[in-house]
């Protein structure tokens, strides 16, 4: 905080009455004549003017500390500007430099300088208040929130007067047509909100899996034969062939294949076929390879923490645990339903394919799921 | 024996034992990481080495796995487990197990790499199984790190974390961090599926793709941390926890300081005020 000279306010004022230089951020001092005669000096103001710290050495130390903190804040603020201008990120970094490291340096420099500047400013202000300002209790009376009766009457009168001048009460046709004119505008948001994107329709009940679609390893996009997953305890994430770049489709179509020892796998018979017929879901497995949806039925996290010793599939988000050997039933956690099983078969070339789409919706519950 | 125990009870002996253990670990680490393939890999184990392996097996492993590695009620059969499984389990110190449990912790091994290869050769002679990869199979040279990243984040990251920092499994088990695993160990783990880990055989993840995954895991160790601190690279939960506890704690301390009663230097009596 530096003192700044102010241009004289009144050029025709006598020289000896000119007020002392004004300190920036304070109101201009009241003329001494007025001060002496009419204005009441409050006790608090008086106390502040007469204030002398008891421990002058302590006050001096505090003052120096505050000044040092403010200078630190000034330097850090300059440092922030320098870091913003000087540390390049993005396409403008020098050739061969690593952009991640450039961003790291820039973030660190900007964050540190700004934090130091603000903290030093705040700390300095607090030390100023706590160690240098006089400890004076000041009372300030609160006023009633309610306006005075006089003001209220005046407002009512003005309002009635305005209504009369506008002819609002005398011309009902104008009043009514004006209300009608605003009605559609008030209703318009309802229609705008209604059209925030298409309704989901049946899309929540279906994935892109269909009869004959091959399961390919996500990443290498290679189809698999049952012999490729020959070791019991194997697991791999697969996706429908041809959809590797369709993120919307993959969000629901991810599947894990798990290979079991003969006799270990006991997927249940379920009701789920057309017309609620019973389906033996063992028919949906190939050589003890079973396919489950990778999307957790709780809130849709990818669930693939498969433990080959316990056959548990754990969801990392909320610890829902599914028993892969028994139809991926929920054995722990907040998920309400088993992971849907994808009917799995082989095509003429011996590759693993879907026999149909999932017979029940994958992923988290939704309103009309039932 | 009793004099030995008495010596162990002295604190200096304890430090000496720790120092000795550290030297052993360091030496083993040097041997394992410096020249993983320098000890002769048992591609065609000689009959004497196999006999040597069998006697080592009988000494150290047979009490649980059975005299002919046929398995007992306590431990599985190792016939067909393969040399890669033996090398992984023994070089990481998981086997021989100190005690029975759902998972065995990693610990310094008491065996030399040559002894491990001899036992591995013996187990391989019983019924084949996955072999120990040679150094060219685990080298990152020319590997496709981007594909490795995709395969890792799809099939490995859910347990081991996106940066290989490890993570929790069910009922107290955990997936170990990959930060100190050698490329050979990573390869063997994918091939054999130790403990709870599923198997990623060559049919699902080809040998070339295994190299890509290893290249990603190894490369990631040297990546910069854009946030400034890695916080163990375990992800958003730690970051949030640090932000909440550290940040909020700092704010609480500041609030305490702001509202603390100041040291009174001068106090105007209240009757001075109107």
Describe the 3D structure.
The complex is a heterodimer of chains A (370) and B (274). With 370 residues, chain A is α+β, with helices and mostly antiparallel strands. Chain A is built from seven helices and twelve strands. Chain A has helices at 32-37, 43-49, 56-86, 99-131, 149-166, 172-194, 247-253, and strands spanning 215-217, 235-240, 255-259, 269-271, 278-280, 289-293, 305-307, 312-314, 321-323, 329-332, 344-346, 352-354. In chain A, helix 3 packs antiparallel against helix 4 (99-131). Residues 1-11 and 33-37 of chain A have low confidence and may be disordered. Chain B is mostly helical and 274 residues long. Helices cover 52% and strands 1% of the residues of chain B. In chain B, helix 3 crosses helix 6, helix 5 (83-91) crosses helix 10 (183-192) and helix 8 (145-155) packs across helix 11.
Give keywords.
heterodimer, A: about 375 residues, Rieske Iron-sulfur Protein, 4-stranded antiparallel sheet, 7 helices, about 35% helix, B: about 270 residues, mainly alpha, Cytochrome Bc1 Complex, Chain D, domain 2, 12 helices, 2 strands
List the helices and strands and how they pair.
The complex is a heterodimer of chains A (370) and B (274).
Chain A: H1 32-37, H2 43-49, H3 56-86, H4 99-131, H5 149-166, H6 172-194, E1 215-217, E2 235-240, H7 247-253, E3 255-259, E4 269-271, E5 278-280, E6 289-293, E7 305-307, E8 312-314, E9 321-323, E10 329-332, E11 344-346, E12 352-354
Antiparallel strand pairs in A: 1-2, 2-3, 3-6, 4-5, 7-8, 8-9, 9-10, 11-12
Helix pairs in contact in A: 3-4
Chain B: H1 2-9, H2 11-34, H3 47-60, H4 62-65, H5 83-91, H6 113-127, H7 135-138, H8 145-155, H9 157-160, E1 167-168, E2 174-175, H10 183-192, H11 207-221, H12 236-259
Antiparallel strand pairs in B: 1-2
Helix pairs in contact in B: 3-6, 5-6, 5-10, 8-11, 10-11
């Amino acid at each position: 905080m530096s003192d700044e000279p102010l241009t004289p306010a009144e050029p025709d004022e006598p020289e000896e009455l000119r007020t002392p230089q004004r300190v920036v951020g304070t109101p201009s001092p009241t003329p001494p004549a007025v001060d002496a005669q009419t204005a009441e000096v409050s006790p608090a103001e008086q106390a502040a003017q007469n204030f002398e710290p008891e421990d002058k050495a302590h006050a001096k130390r505090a003052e120096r500390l505050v000044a040092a903190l403010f200078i630190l804040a000034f330097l850090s603020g300059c440092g922030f500007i320098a870091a913003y201008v000087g540390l390049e990120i993005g396409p403008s970094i020098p050739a061969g430099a690593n952009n991640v490291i450039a961003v790291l340096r820039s973030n660190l420099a900007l964050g540190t300088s700004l934090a130091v500047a603000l903290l030093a400013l705040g700390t300095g202000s607090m030390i100023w208040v706590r160690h240098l300002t006089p400890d004076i209790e000041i009372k300030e009376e609160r006023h009633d929130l309610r306006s005075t009766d006089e003001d209220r009457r005046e407002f009512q009168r003005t309002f009635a007067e305005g209504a009369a001048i506008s002819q609002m009460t005398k011309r009902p046709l104008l009043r009514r047509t004006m209300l009608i004119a605003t009605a559609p505008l008030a209703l318009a948001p309802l229609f705008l909100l209604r059209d925030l994107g298409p309704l989901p329709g049946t899309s929540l009940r279906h994935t892109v899996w269909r009869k004959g679609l091959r399961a390919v390893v996500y990443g290498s996009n290679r189809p698999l034969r049952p012999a490729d997953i020959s070791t019991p305890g194997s697991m791999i994430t697969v996706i429908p062939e041809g959809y590797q770049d369709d993120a919307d489709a993959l969000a629901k179509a991810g599947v894990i294949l798990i290979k079991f020892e003969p006799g270990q796998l006991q997927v249940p018979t379920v009701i789920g076929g057309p017309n609620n017929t019973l389906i033996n879901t063992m028919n949906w497995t190939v050589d003890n390879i079973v396919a489950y949806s990778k999307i957790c039925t709780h809130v849709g996290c990818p669930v693939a923490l498969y433990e080959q010793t316990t056959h548990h599939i754990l969801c990392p988000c909320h610890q829902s645990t599914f028993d892969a050997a028994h139809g991926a039933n929920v054995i722990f956690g907040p998920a309400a339903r088993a992971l849907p099983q994808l009917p799995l078969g082989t095509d003429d070339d011996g590759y693993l394919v879907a026999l149909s789409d999932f017979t029940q919706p994958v992923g988290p519950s939704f309103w009309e799921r039932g | 024996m009793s004099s030995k125990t008495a010596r162990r009870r002295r604190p200096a002996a304890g430090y000496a034992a720790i120092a000795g253990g550290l030297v052993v670990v360091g030496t083993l680490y040097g041997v394992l990481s410096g020249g993983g393939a320098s000890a002769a890999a048992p591609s065609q184990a000689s009959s004497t080495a196999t006999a040597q392996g069998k006697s080592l097996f009988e000494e150290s492993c047979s009490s649980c796995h059975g005299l002919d590695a046929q398995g007992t009620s306590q431990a599985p059969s190792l016939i067909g487990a393969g040399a890669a499984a033996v090398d992984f389990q023994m070089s990481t110190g998981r086997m021989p197990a100190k005690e029975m449990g759902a998972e065995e912790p990693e610990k310094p091994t008491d065996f030399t790499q040559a002894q491990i290869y001899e036992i591995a050769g013996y187990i391989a002679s019983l019924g084949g199984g996955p072999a120990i990869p040679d150094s060219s199979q685990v080298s990152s040279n020319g590997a496709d790190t981007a594909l490795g990243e995709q395969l890792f984040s799809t099939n490995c990251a859910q347990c081991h974390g996106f940066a290989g920092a490890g993570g929790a499994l069910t009922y107290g088990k955990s997936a170990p961090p990959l930060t100190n695993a050698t490329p050979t160990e990573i390869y063997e783990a994918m091939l054999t599926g130790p403990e709870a880990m599923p198997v990623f055989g060559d049919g699902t993840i080809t040998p070339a793709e295994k190299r890509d995954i290893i290249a990603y895991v190894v490369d990631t160790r040297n990546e910069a941390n854009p946030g400034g601190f890695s916080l163990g690279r375990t992800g958003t939960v730690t970051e949030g926890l640090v932000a909440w506890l550290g940040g909020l704690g700092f704010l609480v301390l500041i609030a305490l300081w702001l509202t603390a009663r100041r040291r009174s230097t001068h106090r105007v009596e209240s009757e001075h005020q109107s």
